[in-house]
Write a structure and sequence with these properties.
This protein has 312 residues and is of the alpha/beta class. The protein contains 10 helices and 8 strands. The protein has an 8-stranded mixed beta sheet with strand order 3-2-1-4-5-7-6-8, sandwiched between helices. Bound molecules: S-adenosylmethionine (SAM).
Length: 312
């Protein structure tokens, strides 16, 4: 784990290389499954289908080949977002188990692996698309995470409360545009009381920030302390868009895609927004203000650490 939630350039370059290698290896593994199934890849067509995302519509993630193009175009950005937001809040608490809702191509598993936490992490991904699951299962580069994937959706949280035993629940860009079925989801997540040892992270691009506001208000009404922040609050070192992704680029070029649209780690826009419910799990969170920003959380955290130090 990185000291004081900071990363130096050297550490970030090392992680960046790992990210490049992990996604490229998974992409090649998944490409092999397409070849075995004799599915031709029309990468440009798939890329156009994915551009639906930018137009505020949901692509069909079950089309064979979509996960490949999704992973090469978007996965580094999603990994950096999840990694950076967790790096900003995690301190002396680290999850041992993670539930990843709408796990897609496995961005959360890779992000928590890069965090290099002191404990091994068990991750369960819940994902509606079998094709996306197939891609995640091609990922063999995780050192600190054992990941399993299961077909399902947000609605399954409601049906099966056994999903809610996880220390950290992640929702990364998984709320469909226009999602408004909050009531069952909030009933499933439950009241904060009795769940002080758990954290929830939700990440969405700016275009879906109204969903995060709704989610935050509803969690706050159930007593969950929350903080919100955005990609500009993340450590500068990880926002470097100039670091190369040579192994991913190699796969990209093999698909016949041109360099102008090539894989990149960071981007601006779209801006990502973050919501963390219970940023300081365990007993200490009792006096945490009910809603706030990353700065107010850091100030509160510093003061409460100072207080607990003085009281000892
Ligand atoms: C933009 S991708 C994000 C994937 C991944 N979480 C990431 O950060 O890269 C959206 C994912 O949400 C999934 N999804 C769509 N509707 C969902 C639902 N109702 N419940 C759970 N996942 C859903 C899609 O199948 C897709 O894999």
């Amino acid at each position: 784990m990185f000291t004081n939630n900071t990363l130096n350039n050297y550490e970030w370059r090392r992680l960046h290389e790992k990210l490049d290698r992990a996604i490229a290896e998974a992409a090649l593994g998944y490409l092999h499954t397409l070849t075995v199934r004799r599915i031709p890849i029309k990468a440009q067509q798939l890329s156009n289908e994915l551009d639906e995302l930018r137009l505020g519509r949901e692509p069909d993630y079950d089309v064979p080949g979509i996960p490949l193009v999704y992973a090469l175009k978007y996965m580094p950005k999603r990994v950096v977002s999840i990694f950076g937001s967790l790096l900003s809040v995690l301190d002396d608490w680290h999850p041992k188990s993670v539930l990843d809702i709408g796990s897609g191509t496995g961005a959360t598993a890779l992000a928590v692996d890069l965090l290099d936490t002191p404990h091994h992490i068990n991750l369960l991904g819940i994902e509606p698309s079998q094709e996306m699951i197939l891609f995640s299962e091609c990922s063999g580069w995780l050192d600190h995470v054992s990941a399993k994937y299961k077909q399902g959706s947000i609605a399954d949280l409601v049906k099966d409360r056994s999903f809610l035993i996880y220390d950290l629940t992640v929702f990364s860009a998984c709320f469909p545009y226009g999602f408004d079925n909050w009531s069952p989801l909030l009933t499933a997540l439950g009241d904060y009381e009795g769940q002080e040892s758990k954290m929830i992270l939700a990440v969405e691009p700016d275009a879906k920030s109204d969903l995060l506001v709704s989610f935050r208000n509803r969690l706050a009404s159930k007593g969950w302390p929350t903080i919100t922040f955005c990609c500009h609050d993340l450590p500068d070192v990880i926002k470097d868009n100039t670091l190369p992704l040579p192994q991913m680029l190699n796969v990209w070029q093999r698909l016949g895609m041109n360099d102008s649209d090539q894989p990149r780690t960071w981007w601006n826009p779209p801006d990502d927004k973050f919501l963390v419910a219970n940023p300081k799990p365990t007993q200490a969170s009792q006096s945490l203000p009910i809603t706030g920003t990353l700065d107010s959380f850091k100030l509160w955290n510093r003061n409460s650490l100072y207080k607990s130090h003085v009281l000892q």
